């Protein structure tokens, strides 16, 4: 398996707070690599640096063999880095289909077209429709995003990411607020999806993480304290102490 | 109530029929008012692309309107005085020929929008409003202190410029010209709204993180929209100058920017015919209440307040409110 994504020693500080402290990790083709850690461990900061929203103070990010550390978020997206957010980032006044078409338009890249109606553009519609179909949202295509449910918005985010035909996915808590059934369905879908493109998954839902992840990295106070298979992580004393033990007490 | 497309068609027809009727009855002044509505609405259509579709709250669009006005003023001024604009290194003479004037107005205001937009769009929110305002005021004070073209007094053009096949001094013919241009530009802006670019522009207004995530750069999209918007305002400025046969720094002042914005907001920000409705309301208020009191703008202010507070969709939004419930 080759490394699609290779993060080498990135650090990021906000004042005295070390949000990322010499983090290295890889994402190999065909795998789901889950990133777990307690609140405030720096998971979102890390994802943001990989996606291009934040610049690391030091270290580098490589994507399919290319150093992308100095590229802005749109350029990284064009290279094939698909992303979904913890809080959905969609165009709320547009319909479900329009959002998906916008994703296809971004992947197509030819945006300076002022004349022909975009919603009659066959090639974009085809990509958008098939992405909606895959996440099971086609029946909601005509609804405005502001009218659909929270869970449907999460599905739509995944669908928009699919229209990009990415080489890797960054997913920040895709299960959050989905409810049990929805979470299970998405788990099944992600397992299927990883064959197309590997997924770096930030997730709080431990059931989902242990059911899905080929590898798990544990982030605590900006440092990765362990990386391994789900079983290795479950039994790792450091991890139990820092994170899982804490969870079990609450459970 | 009424569907927006039907309402738009009705408004468009009224704008056509009323001046034609006035022409039959010899009511020249009504034709002039209708022409004024066309020209101001055109500026509003320009701003609506930046403001309504793109969410860019520009208080500097008077700059483009004024540049269009001065493009006309300068060309026509040289033509009427028979003094070339420059002789070296090559000869450039003035012209009274509208298509050339419009072209220059569009190009110059587009270039200004490119420069102003390129800088302003690096900021957002209140800073964007302030920086566009500052650029507009810079041009305003420049025009005031530029004696070659009238300075504070402005420039008077004695005879309206020419358009092939028309006698532009006949009010109904000049109206027809302005009406056709307005119609064409509204049509173009509706194509733009529904095009690939329009989708990207509106998505960027609603959520620019989304735009970045799909691989597009919000800055570029906004800048293109800002330039298109400025070019339309420039054309409107040239026509407005021709309507009044007069150009002055007032065209460049921030009051003008505010007025254009009021047209858009009164009609309903982002709606295709909003600028036309807004401009018509503005001109009618000015006409009917301006005769009653010099302070007629108090009523305009009250109306604007009502619209902003109780009808965020503007007058068009108010009239078409129940559309969704019927569908």
Automatic annotation (TrEMBL), chain A:
<dbReference type="InterPro" id="IPR003593">
    <property type="entry name" value="AAA+_ATPase"/>
</dbReference>
<feature type="domain" description="ABC transporter">
    <location>
        <begin position="5"/>
        <end position="246"/>
    </location>
</feature>
<dbReference type="InterPro" id="IPR003439">
    <property type="entry name" value="ABC_transporter-like_ATP-bd"/>
</dbReference>
<keyword id="KW-0547">Nucleotide-binding</keyword>
<dbReference type="InterPro" id="IPR032823">
    <property type="entry name" value="BCA_ABC_TP_C"/>
</dbReference>
<keyword id="KW-0067">ATP-binding</keyword>
<dbReference type="Pfam" id="PF12399">
    <property type="entry name" value="BCA_ABC_TP_C"/>
</dbReference>
<dbReference type="Pfam" id="PF00005">
    <property type="entry name" value="ABC_tran"/>
</dbReference>
<dbReference type="GO" id="GO:0016887">
    <property type="term" value="F:ATP hydrolysis activity"/>
</dbReference>
<dbReference type="GO" id="GO:0005524">
    <property type="term" value="F:ATP binding"/>
</dbReference>
<dbReference type="InterPro" id="IPR051120">
    <property type="entry name" value="ABC_AA/LPS_Transport"/>
</dbReference>
<dbReference type="GO" id="GO:0005886">
    <property type="term" value="C:plasma membrane"/>
</dbReference>
<dbReference type="InterPro" id="IPR027417">
    <property type="entry name" value="P-loop_NTPase"/>
</dbReference>
<protein>
    <submittedName>
        <fullName>ABC transporter ATP-binding protein</fullName>
    </submittedName>
</protein>
<keyword id="KW-0813">Transport</keyword>
TrEMBL record, chain B:
<dbReference type="GO" id="GO:0015658">
    <property type="term" value="F:branched-chain amino acid transmembrane transporter activity"/>
</dbReference>
<keyword id="KW-1133">Transmembrane helix</keyword>
<dbReference type="Pfam" id="PF02653">
    <property type="entry name" value="BPD_transp_2"/>
</dbReference>
<feature type="transmembrane region" description="Helical">
    <location>
        <begin position="295"/>
        <end position="319"/>
    </location>
</feature>
<dbReference type="InterPro" id="IPR043428">
    <property type="entry name" value="LivM-like"/>
</dbReference>
<feature type="transmembrane region" description="Helical">
    <location>
        <begin position="260"/>
        <end position="283"/>
    </location>
</feature>
<feature type="transmembrane region" description="Helical">
    <location>
        <begin position="100"/>
        <end position="119"/>
    </location>
</feature>
<dbReference type="GO" id="GO:0005886">
    <property type="term" value="C:plasma membrane"/>
</dbReference>
<keyword id="KW-0472">Membrane</keyword>
<feature type="transmembrane region" description="Helical">
    <location>
        <begin position="221"/>
        <end position="240"/>
    </location>
</feature>
<feature type="transmembrane region" description="Helical">
    <location>
        <begin position="31"/>
        <end position="50"/>
    </location>
</feature>
<feature type="transmembrane region" description="Helical">
    <location>
        <begin position="7"/>
        <end position="25"/>
    </location>
</feature>
<feature type="transmembrane region" description="Helical">
    <location>
        <begin position="62"/>
        <end position="80"/>
    </location>
</feature>
<keyword id="KW-0812">Transmembrane</keyword>
<keyword id="KW-1003">Cell membrane</keyword>
<feature type="transmembrane region" description="Helical">
    <location>
        <begin position="126"/>
        <end position="149"/>
    </location>
</feature>
<dbReference type="InterPro" id="IPR001851">
    <property type="entry name" value="ABC_transp_permease"/>
</dbReference>
<protein>
    <submittedName>
        <fullName>Branched-chain amino acid ABC transporter permease</fullName>
    </submittedName>
</protein>
<feature type="transmembrane region" description="Helical">
    <location>
        <begin position="169"/>
        <end position="188"/>
    </location>
</feature>
